[in-house]
Structure formats: C-alpha cells, structure tokens
Amino acid sequence: MLPRRIYQFLIIFLLGIAVLFAVKYLFGLSDYVIPSPADLRDTLAAVYKHYGADVASTLSVAIIGQVVSIFLALMVGILGRQTTWFGSFIKVAAYNVQAYPIVAIAPIIFILFGDGFFSRLLIAAMICYFPILLSVLGIMSEPVKEIEHFYRVTGRMRWQLEVKIRAFENLNKLTTVISGSATLAMAGTIVAEFIAANAGIGYSIRIALYQSDLSKILVALFLIGITLAVYQGLLEAAGRMIGKGVTVTR
Amino acid sequence: MALSCNHIFFQYPGASTEVFQGLSFSVKQPGFNALFGPSGVGKTSLAKIIVGEITGYSGKVNADGMTRLLYSYNLERLPDWSSVGRHLDKITPDSKEEHKEALVEVFGMTDYMGLRFSQLSLGQQNRINLMRYLLQDFELLIMDESLANVDEMTRESIILKIKAMFPDRYFLYISHNFVEVSKFCREIVVVRGPLKQPQTLSLTGIDLKSHQSVDRDRLEQTMLEIMNAA
Question: Of A140, B50, B148, B224, which shows the fewest CB atoms inside 10 Å?
Fold first, then answer.
C-alpha cells in the first residue's frame, strides 16, 4: 500500500508538471511565469533542505493535531452515541458546527492566540476533527444488534463493551477515516501557516507567493505530497496491522 | 409458574395490517414446548412480546413467577476478537462450569473452542450461540430457529440433552420442522394468520425423551394435526 501511495502521488504530480510545461511551451510563456525544468531542478537543489525541515515541522503539527482531534472525536462520539437528550444535542451540535468553515474562524484564533505553534495546532485539529467526529458518531450510534442482543438481555452490557463491539465491527471504517483525516490535518496546518503563522511549509509558500516564485511553490508541493503519501501509507499499514492483530492474537 | 398471553393485539408502526388480533394461548407446565406456524405469521414478534423486547401491544402477557425470560435467535453473532471458548468462559457463572463442559460435548463443539466465531460453520455458530444462553439463569428460553443449519442427528441429541438437563425450565422452540416439533415438544402452540380465529391452536406433542422410542402412528397423527391446524 505504501509504494502504491507513492506511485499514485508521483504519477499525479508529474502529470501536473507536464501540463504546466505544455502550457508554458504551447503559449511561449516566460520563465518568470512558469519556470523551466532547469530552474525547477536548481530550486529543488537549493531549497530542499530548508523546505524539508518546514514540511517536517508542518507534519509534526498535523500529527499532533490529528491525534488531539481523534481523541476528542472519540470522546464526543462515545458520549453522543446515546439516544438520550444529551446524545441528540451533541449530534445536532456537531452537524451544525461542522457546517461553519474553520478557515473563516482562523483569523479569530490568530488574533487571540498569536501566530505560533498553538494556533497552527488548533486549526489543524479543528479541520480534521469534524469529519472524524461525524464518522465516529455514525459508527457509535448504530447498534450491532446481532452481537449486542445477548449482552443486553443477560444484563452484561456496559458502555465499554458497547463501544468495543461497535468499534471492532467498524474497524475498517475507522482506520480509513483516520488515515483520510491525515490529509485534512496537513491541509489545515498548511492553511493556518499560510494565513498567519511564522513557521512551517505554509509560511514558506506564502513567502514564495510574495516573491512570485512558482519553482519554490512546486518544490513545496512536491515535498508536501510525498510526505503525505508516506504518512498516509504508514497509517493504512498500521490500520491493517491493528485489524490483523485484533483478530489473530487473541 | 405458567406462561400465558391473553387477547394480544399488535401492529407494527406504519404497517397497514395487524399481526395479532386477540391472540391468546397458555403453556401451563415447564418443558420443551413449541411455537409453530408458517413464515411471516408472527412467531418472532410473539416471542419478542413475551420477553418484553416489543412493546406497544395491547393485551396481557402473564409469566407468573418468571423473572428471567430470554430470547435467542439464529442470526446472533459472538464478537470475533477472541475464541468462542474464551467468550464462553467469560459468560459462564462458576456454578455452571459442569453444565458448560457437558454442553460443549453434547453440542459437538469440543474441537472448535479455540476458533473464532467467524471461523465456524453456520451450524456451529448457532450451537455456540444457543449454548451461551443455556448457561445463563433463566426460567423461559425462546429458541428462534436456534438449531438451524445443524444436522438432524446432532439436533436430536442436543434437544434430548436440553430436556434432560433443564426439566424445570420453560422452552419455546420456534422451528419450521414439524417432524421435530411433533417428536420432541410437549405443548405445540400453532400460530395462524390474523384472519384465522382463534389465532392459535394448542396441540399435544409426543415429548420424546432420551432412551424412548417413537410411536410412528402417534407421530404421524401429531404431524397431521399440526398441518391441519396451521
């Protein structure tokens, strides 16, 4: 799965670059608008270390944000699974709040918390929190009747067992959502950095944008894409290993 | 202890027709009894009404002296995170360890206790599911197709063992196998469609026990009675 993720990214990225070059040469655009392959190579050689460190910084924030959002979504999803007033309230609140674009709230976060690590983390966590929450709520609210029946009628059902049954029965869905949310966490962090932060690859892209340097932006995109492909591939592999471990070791 | 249902009226929300229109029956003695009837007549609904899993009906269910009424059905699953043996260990009270070992043997599951539920055949899955219900405290156990996909020989020995092990409990066995129902059940409650009145007829089965032989003529007569009643 990991090599496939990388191949897929490389194919798409190279196709994108090919289209850019085709446009450049078709319309005779200058190197200031779309850089030549040589420019691109030189820029890559010049900035890959600096940008690599920036991507690592962004990825670390994204990972922490994702972990925070997974933890929060599980907590809220477990509370919201109940068919009580409180459970319904949480579900309705989750559906409504997620409709509000986080990017629109981002300036408030930067005004209140400044342009440092915490703001990036908060925005990353918020962006990937709601999709995870909606999935967790859906999974946790849906009884697995044919398994739960016995435990209910014999008075053995506890909330921990209920959560365990529903999570286990939907392990594939959960791992897919979690690995998918990695993209959102990364996107959230980059958006936060792009808007106002003082570090990370989003911040570097903002500077490249002010310099109108497409080479740097393309190099940044390449590094973001390859890092994300590796991270997602690793998450998927971990998900598969958890699934196998859960069913084999006991 | 006795089980009776009096003038049960029930309609599923949104359905245009009633499932039960004044259904009544009683099972006066413990033992292996049956709920029999064609598909879709409401046997499962009735079972769920008896154990309290369905509400919103009118009429009265009397389960005098019974506090633990269980309903098991053949589509139930055990979680796949551990072996069926470990699941069984967890839900078996200490006082029923001997019962468990006896049931594992009679149910022909000795060699499969280390496997997970999904690794078992359908018949084995149904057997393990029924076993865990039998290991609980209950006064009434409704077995809704609980021995489906189990071969006839094993089914017979399981039913005979259940009858021998739990002579003072109430069982309601839901099955479409009228030979089996005629042969092993004591009281047979035949449930009929809502257009037929009365909606149930009670018949007496052969109630075969271990080491008894079947009277062929009586078996045929009982089967005919069931077919006519349904």
Answer: B224
